Amino acid sequence: MAFFPKQQRFWLYHAAGVGVVFLFQLVAFLMRGDFVEMNVTAAFIWLPLFTLAVLVFRTLYARYNGANMGMGKLIPIALIYGLVSGLTITTLIFLALLPFFGDEMFNPETLANIGISETEMLVSFFVGNTFIQMLYMSGWTFIYTSTVASRRAKQSELDNLRLQNNLRESQLSNLANQLNPHFLFNSLNNIRFVIHENPNHADAMVTALSEILRYSLASTSKPKVTLEEELGFIERYISIVKLQLEDRLRFNLNVSSQLKHCLVPPMILQLLIENAVKHGMENLPSGGDLDVTVAELSCKLSGKLSIVVTNPIPVSKANADGTGTGLKNIQHRLQLLYGSNASIKLEPSATHFTVHLILPIEKNDESTHY
């Protein structure tokens, strides 16, 4: 650390502090009326000496890691340094004044008028000024160490928050990256079916898949996207799934247009729908209705977004919990993004499986399209 601080704030605060003390001394000297010229000269000599002393303390404080010392150790050190520096400053001021004001200081007539001897004059000068300088230095060190401790605490808190944020982003990225291989595998399987069964639709399906992959890759860099963007992605995804399932899939979407700017985690609806298709629709020869409802909850849960996905399931899977990799992924992402402010509830029945997702309503005035 440099001996002379480069931070402008340090010098501003220091100048303000010593300026107040300097003015206080001048007023006190003028009010006393004796040794005015000598005391004013001493005040001007005091300014650089005190500044040098505080810079020495600052350097020693940094070199010996004073910020990590306990108050029980730091307070005695500050008092001892205040005493030593106070005595040193007083001695240097005395030596600087002696050639010019020695006769005035030790003038017998002046001392007689005051009623003290030369020895008493010396003792009074050194003891009084050393004590005052010790108070000044102790006050400065207290303010300085308190400021450093406060800044370190704030910086530590900021670093901790930054570390937690980086960890959260890393975890979210890992979870988002888990989506792509499974989703891509299913989509390529769908294309394989279409190529063999309906070649005319293969080109449209490849185009839709490319748009889906572009959205998937772009959205993983963001923790949240608008519901409008997510629904656009869902439409392309459903178009691919319908090419495979054809009339077996009847997709019903019920969403209020007022909610289109609400923010949701990217691909979260896709995961819910993919889970419904994989564990329900694909195993039903006659297919069924896949219902998605997005609404704002009322009453005491106002300010919450409700997403409900319901699909029929085969009788053989009526008792299955449905918590595959996709739903577990959603649970982890909700915990990272919202903590206890979001929830996912699974509601299986004899013939249907329902997933109820509740998120805080967060709106974005401007939609960012991919």
Cα-to-Cα separation, first versus last residue: 48 Å
Instruction: Name the beta content range.
Output: 5-15%
List low-pLDDT spans.
none
CATH architecture of the largest domain: 2-Layer Sandwich
Structural class: alpha+beta
Look at the structure and give the mean pLDDT.
Answer: 83
**Rg calc:** 39 Å
Instruction: Look up the CATH topology of the largest domain.
Output: Heat Shock Protein 90
Give the helices and strands as they follow along the chain. HHHHHHEHEEHEEHEE
What is the CATH superfamily classification of the largest domain?
Histidine kinase-like ATPase, C-terminal domain
Number of spatially distinct domains: 2
How is the main sheet built? 5 strands, mixed
* Number of beta strands: 7
Question: Helix amount, in percent?
Answer: 55-70%
Total DSSP helices: 9
Strand neighbour order, sheet with most strands:
2-4-5-7-6
Shape: rod-shaped
Q: Provide the CATH top-level class of the largest domain.
A: Alpha Beta
GO molecular function, one term: phosphorelay sensor kinase activity
Protein name: Histidine kinase
Pfam families: His_kinase
Organism: Saccharophagus degradans
Would you give an account of this structure?
By secondary structure, this protein is an alpha+beta fold. The chain has 2 domains: 8-159, no CATH class; 198-360, Histidine kinase-like ATPase, C-terminal domain (Heat Shock Protein 90, 2-Layer Sandwich). It is built from 9 helices and 7 strands. Strands 2-4-5-7-6 form a 5-stranded mixed β-sheet, covered by helices on one side. A two-stranded antiparallel sheet has the order 1-3. Helix 1 (8-32) runs antiparallel to helix 2 and helix 2 (36-63) packs antiparallel against helix 3 (71-105). The longest helix is centred in the middle third of the chain and has 80 residues, at 118-197. It is rod-shaped and about 120 Å long. Residues 171-249 form the Signal transduction histidine kinase internal region domain.
